Amino acid sequence: MAKYVLTRVRQSLITLFLVSIVVFAGIRALPGDPALALAGEERSPEALAAIRSEYGLDDNIVIQYGRFIGHALQGDLGTSSRTGLPVADAIGEALPVTLELAALALLLAVVLGIGAGVVAAVRRGKPAEWIANALALLGLSIPTFWLGIVLVLAFAIAVPVFAASGYVPFGTDPVDNLRRMVLPAIVLGSGLAAVVMRQTRAAMLDSLSADYVRTARAKGLSRREVVGGHALRNSLVTVVTVLGLQLGHLISGAVVTEQIFVLPGFGKLTIDAVFTRDYATLQGVVLVTSFAYIFINLLVDVAYSVIDPRIRLGGAR
Amino acid sequence: MSLTAGCGSLQSSATEVGGERMTDDRPVRDGGTLTVALNADPDKLDPTLAQTLVGRTVFAGMCEKLYDTDADGRIVPQLATARPEVSADGRTVTFDVRKDATFSDGSKLDADAVVTSLLRHRDLAGSARATELAPLKSARATGPYSVKLTLKQAYVPLTAVLADRAGMVMSPAALKKYGKNFTNHPSCVGPFKFAERVGGDRIVLTKDAHYYDADAVHLDKVVYKPIPDGSVRLANLRSGDVQVGDQMGPVDVKSALTDGKLQLFNSPSLGYQGIGINVGNVKGLGAKPGTIDSPLARDVRVREAFDLAIDRDLINKVVFQGMYEPACGPVSPESAIAPGARASQCPKRDVAAARKLLKQAGVKTPVRIELKTSTTPEWSRIGQVVQAMAKGAGFDVTLRPTEYATMLEETDAGQYQAFNSGWSGRLDPDGNIASFLQTRGAMNAYGYSDKKVDALIARGRTESDTGERAKIYDELARRVNDAHALIYLYRQKNYVVAGKDVAGLRVYGDGLIRVKDAGYAK
Question: How many angstroms away from the CA of B127 is the closest CA of chain A?
């Protein structure tokens, strides 16, 4: 097990290094001069030259990369050219917001998705399945922005149960935090819940018709033991895979959700950085996001091997 | 300029939108936090380095200037005690500063602080104020509260420049302590002082007990929140999560007027929006203008025909629901110094004349034009309207929506035929003209060059007689319009929506929300 994990960690580090090069070069391939974007209305040749010199934009790209990676390895992600605030601080403030949002959305997706998926599979052909399928279709089809605005109109303006925007850390005021996070979590989690529901249903249908379930039934196990202990446990491997793959979408979906609910998370930070060509912030954000992706993939792989030891053994041989 | 005070019902949308409403003088109770939604996250909170329009609104809460503008667009003293005294040759400017002002860090405002700030604005690497303070040769304190400025040449726009960020005075103690990191610890004289900033989320200011007029300040705290999307800004206003919404678009204003809990402030802006045409920018900004071999660049008659094909009133009606003002010159008619043409004086659409001009020019029709537009919904619609109108006169306009930073790079480099060119506006006409229309001007992306215009710009800067100045800018505007290198289309209005329980707000022609007197209505 330890050897397997070590191999995966090594692979992840190499990927991260390659990602850093791609990110660095990719951002610089974007059209639009950051000095111009920064100077905006007040651009004069002298001001542009001073901005380029201050942020090292006039250096060779290799030198710029060396400086960036050297500082990054020491935990220094540079200073935002737009706000003058340290990028690490901005990320440190934005990360918990997005993580909380993603965690709540994931929780919602897992509880609703798996629950509805199991019900749909067990109640195949009955109204419960139709309802679950219809809800899943809705969850997949409704545009995030529209759903967000509708929820705000309904639950923050017409019936003001939740807040329309803003973020308060959970530690500062848990009730206010949830009041502000529930709607964004629903918006972000609804699509994933639909995907999880469909996967769970399909996997459960496979499992329920498998020989081992028939055997379990023949042995006289209760319905709950058959569905929960045998069919669901085996179906979860597929569901966990899908969840792992969809986590990426969760983070990217957060970009739109954070715009609607004005949450100061990663998405908002990224959008602002793209439009102002704030290289330092953009690099920092993409690097940390890549790290998160790679780390989540690592976790999913390890989770696989825990759920199904055959995968671990296969990988270790 | 009319001034409507009070809190009239906003249900009568026609009268409210038609008129101007810049102040609200209802009595205000002490205490409370006001959350202001901005349409973007400000950049650096350092008056020397700051570049965004939205940042000026935050500065309005915490950094007073030597001069300010009033509701009538006139320049009035703020940290200075009176308008500056200018020598006969215009090269020496003297003024006194308040004796009772203290910076938010507790240090005293004096002439030395003013000199330190002005020289920093002029000299700091990357200063966004360097160009406007370039004529400043030296600054020195002639007494504890008296300042003497020596200029390289007479520079009439100086007072207006000092009524913007170049006139903001920073605490020398804070500058010494933080240097370039002043942006994270700004300290000025103002009703509120900087408390914290969370990038992309909020900037918090708290009431400054050191402020010379602290008794007149009612709010405990002002929070500025960037909310770029107009409909999200409006939803937050309606839910009460924010109390003031800045830079609201016409569609959202119309929608806000249906909500009895909201009120509207509006003031005419000093800026403009238009279509810039590349008439000579072949080697990039600041380079010598060259020749471009296209009908639009080569022949002024083709550009005039394009101008005549456009109906400014229709753009205002279709795209902005009639809530902005058609424009046909660089200077706003609301400008207190040398006001420009009124919307009613703008040329009307004349397709027959446009066709005739194209025929005279002997160009093959349709004349193809690629118009770069911002990726905003407004400019997408303007582009479509212009496309349809120009077609009737013999033009084939292709739209190329281009994201802001890319557009700046391409248009500055001269890689375009026509693009949407706008400016937020300055108090002095020179601020709306010189950089754009002077040969090799810092923002002359059009490659426009006219010796007569250059001479008029230079005269306008040195002429102290207001009547003469007005004549100069009138002639200048006419000459520039005749060249049709920059076709002015409309002027935005500064629409600010606030909760009805908020009183004491002020929104003047510079578009800034002044919160000094604001608070919750008694």
Answer: 6
In sequence order, what are the beta bridge partners of A86?
A79
Cβ-nearest to B200 among A38, A157, A269: A269
Which residues on B lie below 8 Å from A38 (Cβ)? 43, 51
Domain ranges of chain B: 10-39+191-269+493-521, 67-175, 272-491
What fold does the segment set B10-39+191-269+493-521 form as a domain?
A: D-Maltodextrin-Binding Protein; domain 2 (3.40.190)
Distance CA A208, CA A50 (A): 69
Q: Which residues, other chains included, contact B274 with Cβ-Cβ below 8 Å and sequence gap of 6+? A: B327, B420, B421, B422, B486, B487, B488, B489, B490
Contact A36 B412 (CB under 8 A): yes
Reported CATH class of domain B272-491: alpha beta
* Interface mutation target, options B41, B129, B234, B261, chain A, most CBs of A under 10 Å: B41
Task: Give Rg (Cα) of chain B.
Answer: 23
Gap between the Cα atoms of B484 and B86, Å rounded: 36
Chain A residue whose CA is closest to B197: A85
Q: Is B184 on the interface with A (CB under 8 A)?
A: yes
Question: Over chain B, what is the mean pLDDT?
Answer: 91
pLDDT level of residue B8 (50, 70, 90 thresholds): very low
Signed CA dihedral, B35, B38, B42, B46: sign only: negative
pLDDT at A5 over 90: no
Interchain CB distance below 8 Å, A94 and B200: yes
**Residue A107: pLDDT above 50?**
yes
Q: Which pLDDT band holds residue A111 (cuts at 50, 70, 90)? A: very high
Mean pLDDT of all residues in B58-69: 96
CATH of B67-175, one of 3.40.50.10490, 3.90.76.10, 3.40.50.300, 3.10.20.90: 3.90.76.10
Chain B residues near residue A146 by CB distance under 8 angstroms: none
The average pLDDT across A160-179 equals 90
DSSP reduced 3-state for A14: helix
Render pLDDT for B381-411 as a digit per residue (tens, 0 to 9).
999 999 999 999 999 999 999 988 889 889 9
Query: Chain A partners of B227 at a C-beta cutoff of 8 Å?
Result: 165, 262
Q: Which residue of A has its CA nearest to B236?
A: A164
From A46, A82, A164, residue closest to B241, measured CB to CB = A164
Going from the C-alpha of B120 to that of each of A136, B138, B146, B176, B382, the distances in angstroms are 61, 12, 18, 12, 41
Whose tokens are 């035929």? That residue is B417
Integer-rounded Cα Rg, in Å, for chain A is 24
Determine the Cα–Cα distance for residues B204 and B201; give it in Å rounded to an integer: 10
The span from the CA of B184 to the CA of B210, in Å, is: 20
